[in-house]
C-alpha cells in the first residue's frame, strides 16, 4: 500500500512540474518523454521480474525494489519547487479536499479523465493479462514474455517520440490517436481471426497475435501525453488536483480491468481483441463529447 501511494504521488508531481515550468511544444515534448517512461514501465516490469528470479528467490525482487527506492530518494531530494509561492495550496486536509472537490465538479475534467482511462485501457488490457496471454493463449514459457512486451515497448516508444516531435495541434493529435486506436483494434481483430491458432512455436500465428497490441500501443501513445496537458490546462490554478483526479480515475480503471474485466476477456485472442476495441470506442466517444461540449480553443500548449 505504501509503495502504491508513493508511486501514485510521483506520477502526479512529475506531470504538474512539467506544466509549471514549460508551455507549448516544449511542454508536449517533455510530457511525451515522461509518458513514454510511464507506459513502458508496466510492460518492462514483468520482463525484469523474470530475469531477477533467475538469480534467486522472490526475495531478490524486493531487494531490487529497495535499491531502486534508495536511488529515487536521492533523486527526489534534489528536485526544485516549481510552483510560485502565491500559487501553492497549504498542506492542510481541508484545503486539499476543497481543491479536489472543485475539480470533481467539472464535467470537462471528468470527460477528459474518463477518455484518457478508456483509451489507455485498450492497451493496458494486454499488459494486465500478460501471463494468460503469453502462457495460455500463445502457449509459450515463463521466459518468453519478451515476445509480447518487446513489440509493445517499441510501439509505445515510437508513438511517444512522434508525439514529442510532431508539429500538430494538440487536440488534433489526440483525435488522431483515438481514431487510430479504434482502427488498430480492428486490425488486431482481423489478424487474430484470420491467423492460425498459436501452438507454442514462434512463427506467423504468434506474430499475428502480438502485432496488433503493438500497433494499439503506438496509437495510444499519440494521445496519452497530449491529453494529460488537456487535463492540467482545464484547471490551470489547481493542476495538482486536476491531475490527482484524472490519475485516480485511470488507476481505478486499471484496477477494475485487471481484477474484473481481464479474467472475462481472456478466453481467446478474439475476446482480447474485442475487449480492447470496446475500450477504444468508449474512449473515442468520450473525447468526441468533450470536443463538442467544450468551447476552449484548440491549444498547442
UniProtKB/TrEMBL annotation:
GO terms for cellular component: plasma membrane. SUPFAM superfamilies: MFS general substrate transporter. The chain crosses the membrane at residues 34-54, 60-79, 112-133, 145-164, 176-196, 202-224, 245-265, 271-289. Residues 1-301 form the Major facilitator superfamily (MFS) profile domain. InterPro entries: MFS (IPR011701), MFS_dom (IPR020846), MFS_Efflux_Transporters (IPR050189), MFS_trans_sf (IPR036259). Its main location: membrane. GO terms for molecular function: transmembrane transporter activity. It is found in: Cell membrane. PANTHER family: CHLORAMPHENICOL EFFLUX PUMP RV0191, PURINE EFFLUX PUMP PBUE. This is MFS transporter. It comes from Brachybacterium nesterenkovii.
Amino acid at each position: 500500500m505504501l509503495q502504491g501511494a508513493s508511486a501514485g504521488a510521483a506520477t502526479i508531481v512529475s506531470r504538474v512540474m512539467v506544466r509549471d515550468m514549460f508551455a507549448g511544444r516544449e511542454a508536449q515534448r517533455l510530457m511525451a518523454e515522461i509518458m513514454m517512461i510511464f507506459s513502458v514501465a508496466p510492460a518492462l516490469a514483468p520482463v525484469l521480474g523474470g530475469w531477477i528470479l533467475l538469480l534467486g528467490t522472490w526475495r531478490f525482487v524486493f531487494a531490487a525494489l529497495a535499491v531502486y527506492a534508495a536511488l529515487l530518494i536521492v533523486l527526489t531530494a534534489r528536485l526544485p519547487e516549481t510552483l510560485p509561492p502565491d500559487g501553492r495550496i497549504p498542506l492542510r486536509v481541508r484545503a486539499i479536499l476543497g481543491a479536489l472537490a472543485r475539480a470533481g465538479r467539472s464535467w470537462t475534467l471528468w470527460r477528459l479523465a474518463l477518455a484518457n482511462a478508456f483509451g489507455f485501457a485498450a492497451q493496458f488490457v494486454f499488459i494486465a493479462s500478460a501471463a494468460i496471454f503469453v502462457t495460455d493463449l500463445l502457449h509459450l514459457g515463463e521466459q518468453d514474455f519478451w515476445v509480447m512486451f518487446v513489440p509493445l515497448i517499441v510501439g509505445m516508444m515510437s508513438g511517444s517520440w512522434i508525439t514529442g516531435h510532431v508539429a500538430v495541434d494538440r487536440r488534433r493529435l489526440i483525435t488522431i490517436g483515438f481514431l487510430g486506436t479504434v482502427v488498430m483494434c480492428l486490425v488486431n481483430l482481423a489478424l487474430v481471426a484470420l491467423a492460425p491458432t498459436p501452438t507454442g512455436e514462434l512463427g506467423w500465428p504468434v506474430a499475428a497475435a502480438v502485432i496488433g497490441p503493438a500497433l494499439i500501443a503506438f496509437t495510444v501513445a499519440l494521445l496519452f501525453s497530449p491529453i494529460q496537458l488537456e487535463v492540467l490546462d482545464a484547471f490551470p490554478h489547481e493542476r495538482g488536483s486536476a491531475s490527482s483526479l484524472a490519475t485516480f480515475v485511470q488507476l481505478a480503471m486499471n484496477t477494475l480491468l485487471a481484477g474484473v474485466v481481464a479474467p472475462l476477456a481472456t478466453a481467446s485472442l478474439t475476446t482480447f481483441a474485442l475487449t480492447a476495441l470496446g475500450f477504444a470506442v468508449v474512449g473515442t466517444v468520450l473525447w468526441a463529447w468533450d470536443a463538442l461540449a467544450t468551447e476552449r480553443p484548440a491549444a498547442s500548449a
